[in-house]
Structures
1.
Amino acid sequence: MKGRMNTQMGEVTIDNDVLAKYAGASAVECFGVVGMASVNMKDGIVKLLKRDNLSHGVNVTLEDNKITIDLHIIVSYGVSISAVADNLISNVKYSVEEFSGLEVQKVNIFVEGVRVID
């Protein structure tokens, strides 16, 4: 399913992958987030994604033009996970809503790992 908006000039359709990339880019800019994570379900291995693979740590679903975003992240050692999650949710929600013009109904955070930053 894709996000759709009707304007005076016609219909605008936004692909889920575009929303996922935007959400991933917004997420990695937040304090305490080292990066997006990819989880190999077969092996249970979590891997830090490079900046060009940001959408792989993000799942976007749309229902009735309302967005639900699942973010799989790796956090920095020593940060408050609840503070990072609160900041992450508000930043990603605001950024995606401003970018797309669609409502973000829910942002789910999955902390997949922790990294020590030098």
2.
Amino acid sequence: MAIQPKHLSNLEPWQDPKAKPYVQIKNLTKTFNGRVAVNDVSLSIYRGELFSLLGRSGCGKTTLLRMLAGFESPTSGKIFIDGIDMTDTPAYKRPVSMVFQSYALFPHMTVEQNVAFGLIQDGLPKSEIRDRVAEYLELVQMSGYERRKPDQLSGGERQRVALARSLVKQPKLVLLDEPLAALDKKLRERTQLELVNIQEKVGVTFIMVSHDQEEAMTMSTRIGLMNEGCILQVGGPTEIYEYPNSKYVANFVGSVNLFDGIIVEERADHVVVKSTATEKNLYVTHSASFPVGAQISVAIRPEKVLLTTTKPTGEHNWTSGIVKDIVYLGDVSIYHVQLPSGVIVLATVANMVRAAERPIQWEDEVFLHWKPENGIVLAI
């Protein structure tokens, strides 16, 4: 479940036609030796957001982040920060700080010296540097570590120091390039919450690059999902997960069952889909408009699939199958059910009883069914 930002009102700024974007990317393109890394990307990001660029390695998200930082020059397009054109502004003149995946701390400097480095470069008075460094070390819960060097810190502690060093200059925009990738799972989960809380306290706009869908879903106000240099969908975590706009997005964010079929009935409030994968037709509450005869896919998340040993009585949205595998994950189990058509369907079941007491086991015949509002119709 995504953390709900406390600083956003009921009407989100991206839903308000009067709201002005804080970061605006217009038709941004970057090519390397004829290869397109970022392809005509346009984005509007609002003040105080924690916006994530999500996608597989090589999809263009880090190149886009580096252009925002000023480390790469666009082939074409514009970048505006707080209404000012930053497209041709060098990195050192931009009101932007960046937290790198490696943290890039100076190994010969103490924590205090690392955090103070940018302020010293800017020529601030010593007293102001001392006070500001202390303030931001306290913010990231690193007070008392001032004299330690990076090799005396854990991965999570180094990450906090890198964040303090970025925030201490009070930038308008903080860019995070896979900031938690080097941490183990438990520490990464805890640090996600800490990062969100810190971001809310300082109110600075964060743009984060991640290939970890769970991380992006947990932390972000909105997500921009990228593939092959393009933005495929922009939306909040719930919107991206519950209402993907393509098969690629549905597959990338979480697990999904996809049934290819043809629309045989189209009404104001629903469509009926005939699929060779299932025994019964699929009845889907409208999520997109397609004509009769259109070839489409119906997407259904595994947690929306109900698993029973009793045959359903409805005319639609059920099928039978044989349990071929059970993946035990502690709190839930994922059942892999093979349909008569040969298609494998996933069903997520909460482990309310111990594994040995499960009523459904391997090779059992079962029935799968789901509600009409749980299907999403997607173009093939």
3.
Amino acid sequence: MLKQSKPLIATVVATMALSFGIGTTGVSASKLNDLQNQQQQIEQKKNELNRGIQEKASNIKANSEKMDKLLAQIKDLHEKIDTKQNEIAKIEQEIQTTKAEIEALRASIKELEQKIADRDALLRDRVRAMQVTGGSTSYVDVILGANSFSEFIDRVSAVNTLREADRQIIAEQKADKATLEDQKNQVESKLASQEENKKKLEAAKAELDRQKKDLDGLVDQLEAEQQRLEKEQASLESEYSEAHEMSDELKQQIVAEQERIAEIARKAEEERKRKEAEARKQAAEAAASKQAESNRKAATSSKPTQSASSGSSVAHTSAPAPAVSGGTWTRPAAGRITSTFGPRNLSWASSNHRGVDIANATGTPIVAAGNGIVSKTGSHPTLGNYIMITHSVDGKTMTTVYGHLSAISTSKGAQVSKGQFIGRMGSTGRSSGPHLHFEVHIGNYGNAVNPMRYVPL
């Protein structure tokens, strides 16, 4: 876009050079109009670029907000991943503890297994002993085989002792085997449960890692988009800067042309005053030789232009034209002042009001506030139909602007007098109702001052 704008700017520069190289005398309102049109084109270009810059800035801000949200999600995922990692570390520690318990249990199991083995050996010895004595010898045979009562008592006692020992061995054997089996089941179940929990935690962590990876990918895309938008914004800003410099150059040329027109207006004003003074002198000389009635008629005919102008300004509307006041300036329209110069609080209009608004019915006559030359007429999206007049006041240049007109009744380069009809009030452009937007500028257009300081409003 920046490369494409350079040929356009070069063309504008060449056009300006030709404009200023052709003719430097006479009122060149068309030249000023061409320069202002060129400036308006560049201003429109600047507005487009500025909208593009603002749009890019808005997109960058939106991307930043998205990125902040994603980074917040990533931060949350980091916390969740750390939590899962800590849980995994904890369960791994529990697994290690359980494995240590299993190792300790194995030692206990070996002791139990040794006790069981010893008991099995004892029971086998008993069986072998019984087999050596006959294989089928019972405790009853042992008791009945006693040779005396005393031996009988001893044998009964011995048999009881053996039987009790056998029962105890068998009971202990069963209890130890049950304990061993229960301990094995408990530890194996605990270990299996811990291993299962570890798998679930690892799966949850893997899912969090996947989500984080997806978010990282989105952040990468947003960062790439952010870089692209910032690069495009920088390009637009560079082009805007170039267009701004071109606009400043055009403004200088416009100011020079306005000053040239102002000089012509100043000379025209001097000529007008000279003629008025000469007419007054001639009237005074004639008054000495004429009757009082002739003097009155001569005085009445000294302002034919204003009378004709005022009559024509009210011919097509019921609203009156303002009375022409004495002095340098006169009120440009009749009506009620609805907005003054300076800051104001309106959502639909400029907060810095550069003029005064005079409200009245559509079609109300608008007159020139002072003697001057019409330097520009046209239409603007905000100001609507407008007229710009350049004045020479005591050797100084001033500019008046009349906006939101429904009709323009003058043209560029026209010489107008104070109070002369130039158009009609309307509501064109950006307006909330029929009114005249009236501005006063010291020097050329662009130095707005409060109109109430100069014009009797």
4.
Amino acid sequence: MAESNRERYLKVVDMKGCGWVPCRVGLFPSTWYKYKEKLEAIVINHNKLFPNFSKGSIKYSDPSSLFGIRRAGNSFVDEWGCVWQFNIDGLQGQVIKHPLEDWNNLKNYSPPDPDKGIAPEGEPTISWEVIESSVENARRRGDVVTVGMPHGFFFMRLHYLRGFTNLMKDFVLEPTGLEKLIEIVTNYNLALVERIAKLNVDIVTFGDDLGLQDRMPISEKTFRKFIFPSYKKIFQKVRSSGARVYLHSDGHIMEVVDDLIEAGVSVINLQDRVNGIENIEKKIKGRVCIDLDIDRQYIVPFGTPEIIKEHIKNAVTSLGSKNGGLMLYSEIHADVPLRNIDAVCNAMEEFMDYYDNC
């Protein structure tokens, strides 16, 4: 009997002998709004990447339905009391007001109620009823059952609450409030994953951008002291339930990938060029499943189709294996020309079966 896509996918994640390279292309709302029918034609032509897409399912004529709250000029107060400002249609905003910028506010501060649900970064809360329904629907379809924690769940939440500069100073000066703040954010995340653990899911996804363009904003020692202990508590809670931990982190993070693996990460979604494919191969290939984020700063928007194909081929041949452990993701924004979108899709469809033995 043939294995389901869910079984194959989890074999890839667990590196248990399935060399298939799962590939995803993320088409951002601004990209749909720019290209409309022309983009739809590309998607329809790439059924291996978009097997469930149906013509007319994207309402690209209606900016409100595409962008939601993420409209230029909008602001939003999230469940933590952070004020978000959105400057570009369809893209995430920035926190412009930090409720704990003054430590005096900590004594009367109350974190969100985890029983209300999960709030995506900069967006309203999704109730547990909706999450549970989504889980059951995925299970009925035979899909991989995934629940996503908020992007910016820990390190970023700390600087959303305090302000980035303040938090960097906190890591040096170690004010009395820092320990309490870390405890508040840790306990909130533990409460969420405890609830998720009861749903019997395959994967819990996390996002926390730890890196800058060519380094981290904090030292490995600082990460180990202030971030790692909470990561480990949260991730081990997930792992003890039988689920895998998927962590997305933008930027250069090579200094802490050993710590992330030790904390319990099953899949690391990291950027290719800022970390270096050779570095990734030497440091973590075969130790953890790699979900490689194809370069969206230069290669995808500005490269030729030939360069894109060669880059994706190099990623697969360098990081892939007949045992699994590699996935690819390409995030497509409005600065990417149509021919390059098509080139990404063509290359992914060509090389996703490079090692396939399952």
